[in-house]
Amino acid sequence: MWSVAQTEKLMTALRARGNQSLRTRIAPTPSGYLHIGNAFSFILTWLLARQNGGNLLLRIDDLDRARKRPEYVQDIFESLEWLGIDWDSGPTGPDDFESKYSQIHRLDLYADAFDRLRLTDRLFACSCTRREVEARSHRCACEISGLPLDSPNCSVRFRLEESCEVTINDLDPVTVRVGETHRNFVIRKRDGMPAYQLTSIVDDIHFKTTLIVRGLDLLESSGLQLKIQDALGDRSPLQFLHHPLVTKVDGSKLSKSKNDTSLRSVRENSNAAMVIKEFSHWINLPGKSCESLSDLLEQIRGIA
Ligand SMILES: [Zn+2]
């Protein structure tokens, strides 16, 4: 849950107006049905964009080909429409997404970034299996064995010293010790595909994102992505908002089954007004609870 101090800072951020250079995005992954936590994160992002007159991009991160399914892509569009969330850039529907916006169309962009990282001394090839790496907690002899980066059946890792810390520009600046938790993380997978940490930051640079809203579970990922950004020599300032995870929402109020907090199930048993109401409780919005996105905006403007 949001603490009182966090809520106050969040309200200040929400009330800030007139920052038309604000560019943010919602970036769902079509590897499962969206759940209520995604909805809250998207509503928060939408509010920050709309209150600031900024630009909101819909970006669907679909490089996990093994888990991607068309019904999950469809679910993203249906859920956003049901919630009343609109966006300024990005695909208008599943077909438009596949033909123009899938990450598959940006493989050259990720390859270019990878080639720029080659010029640094950060990368090394790793022939270890996942099990071997886990047993050695992200350390392996490959770091010093000097295998060529393009060796077959190797992943490529980004070298981090154990002492590596990154300070993230959040509601309050937060320092994460990524070297302790994520030594030498993968940026190109064994099958040659770019890994999430690389594609996510390369897309954010490409789309000129200035604000990234995501859950606290991705705090360390943000640190790793900032390390990649730095190694790429990109200096664009990135503001983050890592929100608490949605764990306290009583699923039973919104969905028949307490354990099924997928938006698909919520859509069948409830309405968007209930979700917005729960959202306004989640961010501790003062005053009456809201039942629509325009209510939310009005209320935030009212307490300015
Ligand atoms: Zn290795």
What descriptive keywords fit this protein?
single chain; 304 residues; alpha/beta; Rossmann fold; three-stranded antiparallel sheet; two-stranded parallel sheet; 14 helices; binds zinc ion
Question: How is this structure best described in words?
Answer:
It is a single chain. By secondary structure, this protein is of the alpha/beta class. It has a single domain, classed as HUPs (Rossmann fold, 3-Layer(aba) Sandwich), CATH 3.40.50.620. The protein is 44% helix and 12% strand. It is built from 14 helices and nine strands. It has helices at 4-15, 36-52, 70-83, 94-101, 107-118, 130-135, 142-145, 178-181, 196-206, 219-231, 251-254, 263-269, 272-282, 293-302, and strands at residues 23-26, 55-58, 123-126, 155-158, 166-168, 174-176, 185-188, 211-215, 239-243. The strands form four sheets. It has a three-stranded antiparallel sheet with strand order 3-4-7. The radius of gyration is 20 Å and the shape is globular.
Number of helices: 14
**Which structural class is indicated by helix and strand composition?**
alpha/beta
Quick one: CATH superfamily? HUPs
Beta-strand percentage range: 5-15%
CATH class category: Alpha Beta
Poorly predicted regions: none
CATH architecture: 3-Layer(aba) Sandwich
What is the helical fraction, as a range of percent? 40-55%
Beginning-to-end CA distance, first to last residue: 23 Å
Mean pLDDT: 91
Describe the strand arrangement of the main beta sheet, using strand numbers: 3-4-7
General form:
globular
Rg: 20 Å
Largest sheet: 3 strands, antiparallel
User: Helix and strand succession?
Assistant: HEHEHHHEHHEEEHEHEHEHHHH
Bound molecules: zinc ion
How many structurally independent domains? 1
- Total number of β-strand segments? 9
CATH topological fold name: Rossmann fold
